[in-house]
Amino acid sequence: MFDNYIKKENNFTYLEKGEGAPLVILHGIMGGLSNFDKVIDYFSNHYKVIMPVLPIYTFPLLKTSVKGFSKFLYDFFEHKNIDKAILLGNSLGGHIALYFANKNPEKVIAMILTGSSGLYEKSMGDSYPKRKNYDYIKQKAQEVFHNPKVATKELVDEVFEIVNNRMKVIRTLALAKSAIRHNMAKDLPNLKMPVCLIWGKDDKVTPPHVAEDFNRLLPDSDLYWIDQCGHAPMMEHPDYFVKLMSEWLTKRKL
Fold first, then answer.
1. What dihedral do alpha carbons 70, 17, 171, 105 form, nearest 10°?
2. Taking CA atoms, which of 104, 116, 130, 138 is between 20 and 30 Å from 216?
3. What is the reported pTM?
4. In order of start, what are the domains of the chain with their CATH numbers?
């Protein structure tokens, strides 16, 4: 959809569309550019939307961690001469945003987190013993969403390929362990920038109590719920997600 806006420079592959204040989007472990189609389409009319492809399966194994990808994001900011930006992160992308904001608060104007890890993680690790079973992996992929139809055959095929690739499994597990190791509970009270939490009421990966904990621990946050919605609101209810995010950015004058 946005092939003309994808650039490759140095070790970075990223999408860039629009003009204005930078809005940097960070995807999750099994996520990608297409997860944010509606977000990119709408907000590129108001911001410079930039979405780096996180090299989850090609990064050096020793650097495949929340900390390692926070450093990757810092290097990307340097490469793009981004002084400060609004960060939007889903799942692992939210965790990377939180870690980055804690280390580099001067570079973060605000954050939008949706289904973010950082306080609680239920990984797909328990599915690996049955990784050869396509129907089981399909069921696991569907459980990420409230509406199982959102897990298209293309998405299920992608997950199936990942869990049956030994090196990708090793990296996925390394990231899952890293996410648990880098619990942000003690750091969240230090994050003074405004944070918008948009959460699916039926999220089974980072359940609703996780959003409530984020809201309680962050000094300046607003929490919005989406009914009949799982772990990826920007995929399952893209129009409503965009509406909530847009209204929050307007309210905060961002």
1. 10
2. 104
3. 0.93
4. 3-119+184-251 (3.40.50.1820)
